[in-house]
Design goal:
Shape: globular
Largest sheet: 5 strands, mixed
Number of domains: 5
């Protein structure tokens, strides 16, 4: 692995100038390395961070990719890391014209990392430096604690998909508000739920606060609460308790275990907390990339196409580019290509905004011909796609813009699979061309971990009680035992999990709330709440009434 030569670096600096003029934003400094095919293959399964801590799963993935490469040699083009400065890796087989195209793609990624709100927990975080420090910490602990370090990593990684990613975003939000303000608590909770005062008195308090604001808005709250403290001396303590309780409710499972496990807080086990926190921090760093895969790849593909075609340095390589780009952005008939879907949605948004089709007037039109002819020539396409890039994740991106017009325009459909009993082979068929069905298929393919929280009110006798907020999909039964076994070790006490499962005797093969009856008709599944208990490394299951 080595830095790109000066000739290639000059080419890339020219790409930066053109990309910056087009509106993309990225750091002034970037690092580019030339690596071999095998190096890229090893980087990819290791989460693309060369300094990430060593763990056996990473090595298994590397071996798997090497084996696949021996059977099916391929030419991976690039890898880019969301660090400060951004680091990207390029195949040593790439010609100059290809590096121009690929670097435009990389700049699209870096711009997305820097501007998308779902990445704001990474904006002020040097992950490569932190990962190197974590790697050294793990190596040092392994020399002292041996295999126990890997046990803790294993148990922590089994629940690292349950980290409170959205709570973390809320905590670092630009508003800086992580808890209810005294004013909100006073009017929304204290007066209504605690004191339960009559509506007439409540209105009087609102008027009293408004009078303070009219008199002097800079000290309105100070003056208002001086009388509140005289009338309700218990207000301050109740407010503090309410915020502590609210913060406790916002803790994810890993945070709760770190804070409340007597086992981890013993002096001899403090080292385990640093390992768990390390795993949690790493998971949080990669959460936005998992949740914006389609948008991120679509945005980068959109800009590598737009900027490359306007770059005079590609003269003579138009056919080469067309062949390479078609392989990247081709839409499969069955399956999902995030590059292809993402770039088409961004192009669709640009077209809608340019023609003024994002208005309510357009949505009211039902005639297909009128919808096709509609064009207000507003020219706000570029402005709109930059706004979408800033504020959406894959779920919102798909839910907002994958409509019937988009599905019809690109001839998209939901494919079904059935067994041909005559030929004894499976065959695919067009199951639906409805936008709602297609959108549902895309959303089902997105990353969506289960929503599981700790219920402190049921944590009796040192029991960790986990509550699964059921959203229509059951937990994977084969993982429950091992995950709860690891949690029991970390918690050093019984662990209970309340979840929903289909009544025994019913099957769920398609992921939906329906099953086939004996008459061949679909029937709704019957769900029941069950309670799993892991105690002394033995798992038991009980049906809740």
């Amino acid at each position: 692995m080595e830095l790109v030569d000066q000739k290639t670096k000059r080419i890339m600096e020219g790409c930066k100038e053109r990309a910056y003029d087009a509106g993309l934003r990225f750091g002034d400094e970037t690092l580019e390395y030339i690596v071999t095919n095998r190096d890229l293959i090893e980087l990819t399964p290791k989460y693309m961070i060369p300094t990430l801590y060593d763990y056996w799963v990473h090595d298994v993935e590397c071996l798997k990719e090497k084996g696949r490469y021996e059977l099916y040699p391929n030419n991976p083009y690039e890898t880019v890391i969301n660090t400060r400065p951004a680091i990207s890796f390029y195949n040593d087989n790439n010609p100059d014209w290809m590096n121009v195209m690929i670097f435009y793609h990389v700049l699209g990624h870096i711009d997305f990392f820097r501007c998308n709100q779902y990445f704001r927990n990474t904006w002020d975080f040097d992950f490569t430096g932190q990962a190197l420090s974590d790697k050294r910490t793990i190596a040092k602990l392994r020399s002292e604690k041996g295999r126990w370090v890997d046990y803790v990593i294993e148990f922590s990684r089994s629940i690292d998909n349950l980290v409170g990613y959205h709570s973390e975003l809320s905590r670092i939000d630009n508003s800086g508000v992580s808890s209810a303000t005294p004013l909100d608590y006073y009017f929304d909770i204290f007066l209504q739920s605690v004191k339960k005062i009559p509506m007439t008195e409540y209105i009087k308090e609102v008027e009293r606060y408004n009078a303070c604001v009219r008199q002097d808005s800079t000290i309105a709250e100070q003056v208002f609460f001086s009388d509140v403290h005289k009338k309700y001396p218990e207000f301050s303590s109740l407010y503090e308790k309410a915020n502590i309780s609210r913060n406790e409710r916002n803790l994810d499972i890993m945070q709760y275990v770190l804070r409340h496990s007597e086992n981890l807080n013993r002096g001899k086990n403090q080292w385990m907390k640093s390992v768990i926190e390390l795993v949690r921090k790493t998971s949080l760093f990669f959460q936005p990339q998992i949740r914006t895969k389609i948008m991120n790849e679509g945005w980068a593909s959109y800009w590598h196409e737009k900027l490359f075609l306007s770059d005079d340095r590609i003269l003579g390589h138009e056919v080469d580019f067309a062949r390479l780009h078609a392989g990247i952005a081709s839409m499969p008939r069955v399956g999902l290509n995030p590059y292809a879907l993402g770039i088409r949605i961004f192009q669709y948004i640009e077209e809608l905004a340019d023609k003024g089709k994002l208005s309510q007037d357009f949505q009211r039109i039902s005639s297909i011909r009128e919808r096709e002819r509609y064009d207000k020539a507003e020219g706000k396409g570029i402005e709109k796609i930059f706004d979408v890039r800033n504020n959406m994740c894959d779920y919102l991106f798909i839910d907002t813009f994958v409509d019937q017009d988009f599905v019809t325009k690109h001839d998209l459909f939901v494919a079904g699979k059935r067994l041909n009993s005559n030929k004894m082979v499976y065959e695919y068929y067009v199951k639906s061309r409805n936008a709602g069905d297609y959108c549902k298929m895309l959303q089902d393919s997105l990353y969506h971990p289960p929503f599981i929280t700790v219920d402190p009110e049921r944590n009796a006798n040192n029991t960790l009680y986990l509550y699964h907020h059921f959203e229509g999909k059951p937990l994977v039964a084969e993982f429950i035992s091992n995950v709860m076994l690891g949690l029991e070790f970390l918690w050093d006490g019984p662990v209970q999990l309340e979840t929903s499962e289909v009544e025994r005797g019913e099957s769920r093969s398609d992921g939906r709330n329906l099953r086939k009856g004996e008459d061949g008709n679909s029937r709704e599944l019957n769900w029941q709440r069950v309670l799993y208990t892991m105690k002394n490394r033995n798992l038991s299951r009980k049906i809740l009434t």
